[in-house]
């Protein structure tokens, strides 16, 4: 409990300074400090304070508030979480068991993505769960109500509309039976807790990567393309506010020698990853979103043995000194491009991961305020 002498001194600290101090603290501390007094409870629950804390947490370059959620490769659906800073800096890292809100221990729900501390999970392709594990608050969307047939799947994406200040989930309904026809698209608004139809996905294009990647107010999918003369795939971008599509051009890369690329997000930028000749994993980064000339080849990671059996997945994060966090053979590894070395961070009481996603600890609630 708080020292009473400290509390007596608090009135002499200006309110502005209290806000500056508290907004830099971890969420776990802030949840405890809500019990200190009514004014602190009011402050920590205030939308302005939540936005300030969010801004400071997400802009931090040393990942102080960042964690990685891991889905275990066990028969039962187990989720664990550990500190990103610890993975980079310590040989061994403690992890926390997360209490997933949907009680169905034998169904593995897929991680769609994270945005401002909210995690999105796809539940049987028909609805989503928005969950902030840091404050243990969640909300399940209504069902999509699509006409399911064998082989159909839904490609989801989570993002934030800065203009309407609303979190949105986009669902692209893909039917391989009608492979290159228009794919139906619905948008879920956290504010209204409802789905509505928007313009179909561009004709002749179908996402092959299930999760859209959120960058600069847009969701981006790597997609198959039947109508393109120069490529068999494109990057389709959806502006979350205008709800309009456009094509984002990939870099000029060695198409003939590599696998079909996938997309990711690093340092808040769109990235593109692919296997090159099954000897290297190549990562490109788009420094200025939408500007093709801003693509840079970020890193080329040599493969460990048996790449045909176990490709890399990720990358999930890159440290200030350039170390890359990714997954190989169901375990996290670190690659340092400066000396071409690998490290194998050990996670206490956990081994074997099916899925992973980096998220930031925030006070953002999926049920609003």
Automatic annotation (TrEMBL):
Name of one Pfam family that matches: FBA_1
Sections of the chain in a coiled coil: none
Residue intervals of the F-box domain: 7-53
Cited Gene3D superfamilies: 1.20.1280.50
Signal peptide segment: none
PROSITE patterns: FBOX
Top-rank lineage group of the source organism: Eukaryota
Record-linked CDD domains: F-box_AtFBW1-like
Protein name (database record): F-box domain-containing protein
